[in-house]
Design a protein that fits this description.
alpha/beta, Uracil-DNA Glycosylase, subunit E, 7-stranded mixed sheet, 8 helices, 7 strands, globular
Length: about 250
């Protein structure tokens, strides 16, 4: 319960964050200049907190909220095309109770899965600046500390993959320059004396501070509409996750 309460406090800190002036201005712009199809929406217009199961073994790291997806609805991947792919795959693999989410107040619930992002504000052209990524990094580092049962981290896209590796190094993991590639799975361990955010668990082989990182192409329209990422390819990612963590919690 302590971790759950700490996560709630962290979520409040994220929502109230104003570290990046460019992103604050951009959120105000998209809130005040809604496209016709969303004129009736009351935009969230603030940084988005992470969400999911505090006891999750699967941690998903995305890039950033979509301007007219999460920044509109108030929940990551809710109401956009990437979310349609992600929630469908999570539902099929047993991590979500429903295959689609359009609003933050629907009954979607994640089980054994937690979703976060490299940055928590929608950036212009979906391209965060290096300093904006650094401003947001402490939130991810704190999630690493609080999510004590994580066994596998799924990085959606190359930026999320690169920044996840950087963050793991900062909490004591010995990680070489690993190449990004769809479906590539890496096992990394903390260096001797490094701080481990995972608990010791004989079933999960966490006594050595090991965690697995799985990379995938991001389910963005740029990738899905061009065929770079197909439904079977994305489904196989979650089949691999199930093989790695098993069914039991």
């Amino acid at each position: 319960m302590r971790s759950e309460e700490a996560l709630k406090r962290l979520h409040k800190s994220v929502v109230s964050c104003r570290k990046c002036p460019r992103l604050v201005i951009y959120l105000e712009e998209i809130t005040n200049r809604k496209p016709k199809r969303y004129q009736q929406w009351d935009y969230w217009g603030k940084p988005l907190p992470s969400f999911g199961d505090p006891q999750a073994r699967l941690l998903i790291v995305g890039l950033a909220p979509a301007a007219h997806g999460g920044a509109r609805t108030g929940r990551m991947f809710t109401g956009d095309r990437s979310g349609e792919w992600l929630f469908s795959a999570l539902h099929e693999a047993g991590f979500s109770n429903r295959p689609k989410s359009d609003r933050r107040d629907d009954d979607l619930t994640l089980s054994d899965c937690y979703i976060t992002a490299t940055i928590h504000c929608a950036p212009p052209k979906n391209k965060p600046l290096p300093q904006e990524i650094e401003n947001c990094r402490p939130y991810l580092l704190e999630e690493f500390r609080l999510l004590k049962k994580v066994r596998i981290i799924l990085a959606l896209g190359q930026i999320a993959f690169t920044q996840t590796l950087r963050s793991l190094r900062l909490v004591g993991y010995e990680i070489p320059n690993l190449p990004f590639g769809h479906g590539r799975l890496y096992r990394v361990s903390r260096r001797e004396g490094g701080k481990d955010f995972l608990r010791s668990d004989r079933r999960a082989d966490l006594s050595t501070g090991a965690v697995k990182i799985l990379a995938t192409y991001h389910p963005s329209q740029q990738n899905t509409q061009t065929g770079r990422l197909t439904r079977p390819m994305f489904r196989q990612i979650f089949e691999k996750i199930r093989e790695e963590i098993g069914e039991e919690q």
